[in-house]
Amino acid sequence: MVFGLPLVLLTLALIAGHFHRDGYAELLDWKPTRSPEREVELELGDIQQMLDAQNRHRRRRGAPERTLEEVMERTLG
Fold first, then answer.
1. DSSP state, 21?
2. pTM for this entry
3. 27-63 b/e with 16+ CB inside 10 Å = b?
């Protein structure tokens, strides 16, 4: 009972998913919460916030501020 019932339910779910023509996402009625474009916007906003915070600390130390291009150049090259 402890292992049999969950195993039967899992097996039925896998069989239903296998024979469902539209795929698992349609079977589960799954839709992404955000669009990929929105995810990129949020990621770029996070990067800008981190760069702003780093530049605040650099200003306090008297070091020159860095731009996003400088950071990318140093990271990639």
1. T
2. 0.55
3. eeeeeeeeeeeeeeeeeeeeeeeebeeeeeeeeeeee
Task: Find tokens 């860095």 and name the residue.
Answer: 66
CA 42 – CA 36 distance, rounded (Å):
10
DSSP string, 7-61: HHHHHHHHHHHHH-TT-HHHHTT---SS-HHHHHHHHHHHHHHHHHHHHHHHHHH
Query: If you count DSSP H runs as helices and E runs as strands, how many of each does the chain have, helices first?
Result: 4, 0
For residue 24, the model assigns a pLDDT of: 64
The Cα–Cα gap between 12 and 26 comes to: 17
Q: How much is the pLDDT for 34?
A: 85
Q: Under DSSP, is residue 61 helix (H, G, I), strand (E, B) or coil?
A: helix
Work out the mean pLDDT of the chain and round it to a whole number: 87
